[in-house]
Amino acid sequence: MQNLTKPLWDNGFSNLQSDSSPTAIVMTDSHGTIEALDHVAESWFGYEENELLGNSIDVIFPTSATSDDTAHSVCTLSQLGVADPKQCWLLQACRKDGSTFPTQVTVNSLVTTSGDSRLANVIDLSPRTPGIRDMAGEYSDQGGLHQERWIQRERLAAVMQMVSGLSHESRNALQRAQSCLDLLQLDLADQTDLVALTDQIRDALKDIHRNYEEVKSYAAPIMLKRTVVDLGKLCQSTFDELTASLGEHSPQLTVRCDATCESVKLDADRMGDVIRHVLENAIHASQPEGVIDFICNFSSIAGAPGIEIHVRDHGEGVTEEVEVRMFEPFFTTKLQGTGLGLAVCRRNIQAHHGIIEAANHPEGGVLVEISLPTDTVVDTTLP
């Protein structure tokens, strides 16, 4: 498999690196206090994130802003008790320098571990903004791409809202089931075969909760926190954790990295998740005492400096259907799991303005290729 990455960059994937994203994300608590915002929001409003954290959203959507014709009264987002994702608000936004610009805002309600939150998707309606209607009512040349990305954000926000609600409502039911199992186990203490059944039920309940959390994590906005990471060491430590219980039946890992990969600025947790998922699949595909190759080198990507990571197992490869669909959300060939592992990997890599692809290697096994620009050092986000 040669040059998997270049066609995707040439087809406009690098456009995702621009600050002309059609939507910005602002997250608040249920009272309108700002909890987080993405890089696009920082660029549009002229604030650093830490300047807005803890402040009311009225700072960027002042009380003088009015709602659209479908509303019956003046409204500010901080006063929204129940978010309705079907409602679009036309609000005048205010930058740090005091200038204003028109926006369209939709708000989704989220349930998090810290309580109820609001996720506001903001669209800049300024004239000639890519991805929105111009003064003649027509879309700009890049409107299709931007519109598609906006729809993706709205879809993910809706998925997260749904799963958050289900997870919140199910938590009490799962806890009640766990309590009933605890009592049942006490009564069955001398019947080991029945106790084993209750343990299986307990594991199944844990799987349900884990699936909810995995889907919610997939749909959540990605807020990168970049630090300097040694990718070779990160790969080796992750592999050691994954194979600690395999003993002599563990495959072997070979790591070959140049000096560039010893100090890459990226989100260590997100990149760690990517490497973990990729290595888990490689280990699962490998024979005992097989070999998994991890190669990381400096590379020129679309004329810009970057790094390329290759991870290859030497197993039997995958079917044509799996090769085509392996990054598709909820697609899995395993009996357990949500099928979101590689889909999460792709979102994490795209948040870093990179790409990830995988295919059968001509000489056997599966080769995963990851390309990351090294000159993008500011925090970025994806929906």
UniProtKB/TrEMBL annotation:
It catalyses: ATP + protein L-histidine = ADP + protein N-phospho-L-histidine. SUPFAM superfamilies: ATPase domain of HSP90 chaperone/DNA topoisomerase II/histidine kinase, PYP-like sensor domain (PAS domain). Keywords: ATP-binding, Kinase, Nucleotide-binding, Phosphoprotein, Transferase, Two-component regulatory system. It comes from the Bacteria. Residues 165-376 form the Histidine kinase domain. It is an enzyme of class 2 (transferase). Pfam families: HATPase_c, PAS_9. Gene3D superfamilies: 1.10.287.130, Histidine kinase-like ATPase, C-terminal domain, PAS domain. Residues 19-62 form the PAS domain. Its EC number is 2.7.13.3. This is histidine kinase. It comes from Neorhodopirellula lusitana.
